[in-house]
Amino acid sequence: MMSRFLARLRPVAFSLSLMPLLLAVSPLAAHDYKLGDLRIDHPWSRATPGGAKVAGGFMKITNNGQEADRLVGGTLVSAGIVEIHEMAMQGNVMTMRALAQGLEIRPGQTVELKPGGLHMMFLELKSPLKEGEKVKGTLVFQRAGTIEVEFKVEGRGASGAHDHGAHDHGGHSGGHKH
């Protein structure tokens, strides 16, 4: 009877013995990237409805180096154009504009690209972004160079709903319609 109990316990003990290994690997599966002194955490976008021609790209970028760097562009396989944008209140109007010189990340600084603030703008979408998929793209930095990333597509309301159609796009070079 004791040997039958031990035989049933063996798979559980083996599974538990793997737990430290699984925990040690989890940061690699966390969807983070490193390029030189830059750390890029969780690039993501929101699902888009059929027919949508624009989407936003979001992430955190940390500069662990001694010199500033600048996010100057990127690509997304589903988009014809990618720009770096900022949103800001001007009086009672939320405005959005492309950052022609890109986005500076100073030494020791973490910059968060998020809905309603700094973000990547994916223009001329060729197909809708679907929740759960990962879309390949690149990030281009002035000093560190280019890195391939995947943008995880999350639900439409992820991290605070934001409607691009309700804002003034003055100064926007993309020329897209909502």
Question: Outline of this structure?
Answer:
With 178 residues, the protein is mostly beta strands. The chain has one helix and eleven strands, in the order αβββββββββββ. Strands 1, 2, 3, 4, 5, 6, 7, 8, 9, 10 and 11 form an eleven-stranded mixed beta sheet that branches.
Characterization of this structure:
- The chain has one helix spanning 2-25; strands at residues 32-35, 38-46, 54-63, 69-76, 79-90, 93-98, 103-105, 110-113, 119-125, 134-141, 145-154.
- The longest helix has 24 residues, at 2-25.
- The chain contains one helix and eleven strands.
- Strand 10 and strand 11 form a beta hairpin.
- The chain starts with a helix and ends in a 24-residue tail after the last strand.
- The chain has one domain (32-160): Immunoglobulin-like (Sandwich), CATH 2.60.40.1890.
Quickly name the level 1 CATH class: Mainly Beta
Strand content: over 45%
Q: Which structural class should the secondary elements be placed in?
A: mainly beta
The end-to-end span amounts to 71 Å
The H/E string reads: HEEEEEEEEEEE
Oligomer: single chain
Mean residue pLDDT: 80
Number of helices: 1
Q: What is this structure's SSE topology?
A:
Elements: H1 2-25, E1 32-35, E2 38-46, E3 54-63, E4 69-76, E5 79-90, E6 93-98, E7 103-105, E8 110-113, E9 119-125, E10 134-141, E11 145-154
List keywords for this structure.
mainly beta
